[in-house]
Amino acid sequence: MTINVKKVKEGAVLPLRATAKSAGADLYACLEKDVIIQPGERMLIATGIAVEIPDGFGGFVFPRSGNAIKKGMSMANAVGVIDSDYRGEISVPLINLGSEPFTVSNGDRIAQFIVIPIELCDYAESESLGVTERNQGGFGSTGEH
Description:
Number of strands: 11
Strand order of the largest sheet: 2-11-6-8
Number of helices: 1
Distance between the termini: 39 Å
Order of helices and strands: EEEEEEHEEEEE
Structural class: mainly beta
Shape: globular
Oligomer: single chain
């Protein structure tokens, strides 16, 4: 599958998989100047690109694991969802969960982008739901280990 990508800002970098078998493609910051994200601070970082996701698919933006474990950087919304009918610029809401300021420079890898098939569902109100072994057991109901 090929995803059409439009550069909406000069200097933008197309998504790129680090290896031939990488599931996600890196998204790159497209900035005029460095941005410093202080501990506890959130900042929306532009990528300078827009994508054309086919119907029946969704685009999903995930944090980079290296930035998370080494620097405490994540995404403020955990996972970003890009609908197939969205054609605007992709921006990534980064949050600094670490203890040190984090600098984002133009061209830095800031997130990963994955295109996944989705089922577009209708939702109907129902008086009852099917019974399962777990049933209404919530957080932690299946045990600690």
